[in-house]
Amino acid sequence: MTDLSDLIHTIEYPYTRSTGPYLGPFLTGLRDGKLLANTVGGRTYCPPIEYNPESGEDAPATFTEVGPGAMVLGCTWVTDPSSKHPFSHPFAFAMLLADGADVPFVHAVDAGSPDAISAGTRVVAQYRDDRRGAITDVYFVPEAAAVDQSIEPGDEPVLITEHLISLVVREPLFPHRRRYAEGLLSGRLLGQRSPVSGKVVVPGRGYDNLNRVPLTEADELFVSDRGTVSSYTVLTPVQYYGQKETEPYIRCSILLDGTDSPIIGVDVRDIALESFRVGMRLQAVWRAPAERKVDGLDNRFGGSWEDVIERWEPTGEADIDPDSLKDYTW
């Protein structure tokens, strides 16, 4: 049986850019175990900035080393780090004023516990063994936990930086979608009947979009897994390297008995193309309970019918008049 846990959507792509005359030296410094800053308008900034925030003029591209010590001005504790955080264990993000700088910046402090860090705590920069010219090359620890590090500088400046940009969205299934999924896993189709129009749709949307009324669990009902083909098309797979589909097959819509809107995207592979037709009566043959899954189902899409239904078979009943199905073409 499929675990109906929260849905996880990940949007991810690599991002590569040139570092430029300000960020490049700063990242090169991190790779080489140094915190670099520049002085603009009489104030020293770490990391360096590219323009004077008061006048908008270009900042000087001349750099001095600050730190490695810093003062915590404020902090917040991260109890449950994500995969994008710099540590897999709890840590702090802190506003840090590096020694020799006038403007603070935010960075990670591996403090060990929330009791070990607060405003006024002294911290020291530490550098990872594997440094790539990225902001994650450096982190901070409380002064008492700092160790001396011997870091060999690299041969070339850091001119290109690459980051994996990602956004992870956690989405719980809506209650009506969860009940619909549970119905599929038990071999039943759950629909919803509008209390205004009386029309039944599968799967339910949680609302009647025509009459603008919400639908609740009280409006749900199980419907037949037998119905009538209301429209179809024959798909001929385009052949390319890795294509698993080799033979033409049918994708159709089926108006289930007792419903007012067809289910769509139903793939049929076990009925000859030349005998398939609008008006044909079909019956679902469900997969064994242990083989059913709803991994592709979310709050917007219904997943694949083939994940729960093995095939559709002709019932042997007489066809329904195709003219009566014109309003159910999809």
TrEMBL record:
Residues 223-287 form the ChsH2 C-terminal OB-fold domain. InterPro entries: ChsH2_C, NA-bd_OB-fold, Thioester_dehydratase-like. PANTHER family: BLR3430 PROTEIN. This is Unannotated protein. It comes from freshwater metagenome.
